[in-house]
Every structure is written in structure tokens, then in C-alpha cells.
Prior knowledge:
Elements: H1 11-19, H2 23-26, E1 35-37, E2 43-45, H3 49-64, H4 68-81, H5 86-98, H6 102-114, H7 120-131, H8 135-148, H9 153-165, H10 169-182, H11 187-198, H12 206-210, H13 215-227
Antiparallel strand pairs: 1-2
Helix pairs in contact: 1-3, 3-4, 3-5, 4-5, 5-6, 5-7, 6-7, 7-8, 8-9, 9-10, 9-11, 10-11, 11-13
Amino acid sequence: MNIVPVTALRSRRLSWAVVLLALPLAVAGCRGSAPAMSVQGESVVTPTAEEDALYIALIRGMNERGQSQAALAFLDDYLKRHPNDVEALGLKGEALLRTKQYDAADQIYIALDKRRVQPVAAFGLGQVRAQVGDWKGAVPQFARAAEAAPTDPRVLNNYGFALLKTSDYPKAYDILARATQLSPQSPQIRTNFAIAALNSGHEQQVDGILQPIPAAEREAALSFARSWKP
Length: 230
């Protein structure tokens, strides 16, 4: 199962971010920003809050398109100006996860956890542990994330899957039932829910759980669920 980051972005905002890639450096002065002075005495324009938001949108889009190495380069630049920006730090943790820099990602999320940035911190800590195969360590972190975001199906799905990996099938069934109600069109969540049902005494529900999955994919989902092992 792919661990899913807790991020969201409307496509229209992304398209603006792509168009305005050079905006913070090239035309920020058009927004009325106050110029600063570089060490060489040259005038340097500070991006506005609106331009910073577009910059973050661009970085988020890079992560979502699998361009996380580029995202890290942009984040380094952004965090020089805003070292305590929790959204940027969360995106950096995500980019580090996507590039398999697990120790560095863990440190980002630990720092965010100390600042009580939830569910991002706990979810990130759970992701790090899941990616290195420490499912027992992932479960309590995902549980904390689910407590902070009880209606986020992505958080619940990852929590439920971690419970499956630790063979806590009754608890996984309850969590994944809720995730399915919140995101009824997700084949991944339904497949995980079917696994939980098969292993927790709810076999008779499996056909109904998988019924909304397109017919061309339903048989493969059932076969996967029946053959699944932690």
C-alpha cells in the first residue's frame, strides 16, 4: 500500500503557481513590496504574502508530481526567509519521505510534534515508521493523527492498514469501516476494509464492501484481499 501524505491542493491554484514560478524573484516589486538591501548594497525585493502562498502552492505541486528533489531545493530557499513556517516544514518532511531520507524526515516531524502541529506531525511520524517496516511503531502515531483528524479518510486508511500489518483485525475493521463511509469511492480503502472483514469474522460482508469497485477491478481486489498476509 502506498502511504498517502496529508496534503491537498486545488488544481486552479496549482496552475497559477506554475505560471508564476518566477514571480517572487522577478516581479514582486509590482505588488508594492518594500525593498531590502543585499550585502553588496543592491536592492532586493521581498516577496509579498500572496507571492509566498503561490510559491508554497508550486512546491506542493512538485511533491504531488513526484518532483520532490526539486521541491527540496525550492523549500531550502523559502525556509531561509521563513524558517518557522509550519506548512513549509510539513512539505519538507513529505519531500524527504518521498526521496527516502527517512532520518531527516523524522527530525522534521519530531520538531513539528513539539510544536503540536497536528495531524501533520503524528501522521508524518507514522509514515516514517511505516516506510522502514516498523508497523508497531507506526500504529500509535497514526492513532494520534486519527484523533486529531477523525474525519480524514487518508489518515484513517493508513491507520487501518497499520493495524492490519500488526494483525489487530477487529480494530482495523472499525477504523476502515469509518474510512469507507467517508470516502466510499476509494478502491484502496475498500480493499483494505475487505481484508479486515475477512480476518475479523465479517466474511459475509466482503461482496458488499467490494461491490462499488468497478467490475473490471473487483475480482482482482477480492483475490488480493483473500490472499493478503501481514
